[in-house]
Amino acid sequence: MTDDHHDSADTGWNAVEDSPMERLLREAMTARTNQVTVASLRPAAPPDGRRRRNRPLYLAAVPMLAAAAAVIGVFGVHTDTSADRRDAPPAASLSTGPTPGVSQAPTASAASTAPAAQTAPPGPTATDAPASAPTQPPSASASERSAHGIGITVDGLSGSKPLVPGSGPVAFSVTWTNTTGQRYDSVAPVVAARASVVGAGASAPVRGRLQRQDGGSWTDVPLSEASADYRSSGDAVAFPLAVGAGRTIRYRLDLTGDNAAGTLSIESFALVPSPQGPSQEAAVVTDVQLAAAAPTKAAPVAPTVRLTGGPSAGVTGKTPSQFQLTATNPGTAPLNSVVPSVVLTERLGPGATSGSLKPEEVTVEALYGGTWRSLGVSSAGGGRFVVDTSLLDRSVAGGADSVFDLRLNLGSSYLGAGVDVTLSAQGDGLSGNSVTVSPRFSYPMNP
Question: Of 162, 158, 161, 199, whose CA–CA distance to 293 is shortest?
Fold first, then answer.
């Protein structure tokens, strides 16, 4: 025993007396193996540097190993491996008492190993979200949404060809799309024109009409942003917008010819409710180039008439009285429908009374396609007769003439003073001047 301790003291490994626990352990192992000596349990040289640095860890575990030593006899030691291993920790280091010069508290090297067991593995940290977790949109009230939460697209309004005021209505459409991650319960669409820019940055009011298609009808909406109620124009047709949904509305713009050439800006935006009142959510401005106004279309002018032939003398029942009427279009715009008017009024001679001439006694004909065609005659009362001239309806270009050849006869039994013929013409519903002729008729019995 003493010799063994002196051998270990030379190495500087252990210089203390054997404890009772060590002796008990040695006796138990000796009794079982009969081949293991105390000298073989202690290495001839001290452990390498790595073992020396970790010695405090063994000392910290001594109290637990001391409790387990009571049952050490149950373990068997194989002499063919344990006796010659020089890297096994020496049995003398297992002590139940304090070791001189060594603190029982964990050293810095022991404490530094504790957090290592809690270190997260490479990759996601504690704040990383799983890669598969979907990104949720932030919750916000209507007044907190960003200024471009609604996408707006305008189609059919701008293009390479300028808009000509006075040339008729131009149809276009506006689409509102929810580009956020949450639903809009109410979106009021608003479209209106700003003042047009003419010459050197000067502005001029816009004139005309703007309409919105509501179902199958067109509704007038304020044309200009100068109108006091243009911002509320979309309240009546406000609509909800689900996430990713869109709504398209058609409009038509009809500018009058007194708009000057320049640039007209049309603004389209959406109003959504907010605690402070309607909030403008998004806006798109579309610039429309205005060309010089189209020349004012010439208005139709009533035709004028003149007698260009006759009337010739007639014989009742035999030879009609013939005359020629010329209608002129004095304007530059064409007249699409020119119809002559022929009205007969019975003349009353001495002692004659109205009503002696019957419609069936009056014959009026017109030269139509090289053939004389009979025209209908009806009584208008009071000795007046109206001739149906609808067969002679024709168009007359601006500044052009149209000639009507007519002839009139009275029945052979008529003995009255004859008739006065009032001639005029209507062009596109407009009536011009008139001329009156009084054909002379003789009677067969009095040639």
Answer: 162
Per-residue pLDDT of 275-314, as tens digits, reads 888 888 888 999 988 888 767 778 899 999 999 999 999 9
Q: How far is CA 264 from CA 158, 234, 279, in A?
A: 10, 21, 25
Average pLDDT, the chain: 75
Sequence-distant (6+) residues with CB within 8 A of 232 are: 188
Longest CA span, the chain: 190
Strand, coil or helix: 362: strand
pTM to 2 decimal places: 0.40
CA dihedral sign of residues 22, 24, 25, 31: positive
Question: Could you tell me which of 132, 157, 319, 152 has the C-alpha nearest to residue 241?
Answer: 152
Question: Are residues 204 and 258 in contact, defined by beta-carbon separation less than 8 angstroms?
Answer: no
Extract the tokens encoding 18: 């054997």
Rounded CA separation 250/163 (Å): 18
The residue length of the chain stands at 447
Give the residue-averaged pLDDT of 243-261. 92
Cα 24 vs. chain centroid, distance in angstroms? 93
Peptide bond into 311 cis (omega under 30): yes
Tokens at 167, concatenated? 């040339």
Q: Is 440 within 8 Å of 321 (Cβ atoms)?
A: yes
Structural domains present in the chain: 2-108 (no CATH), 142-290 (2.60.40.3880), 304-442 (2.60.40.10)
Distance CA 344, CA 352 (A): 17
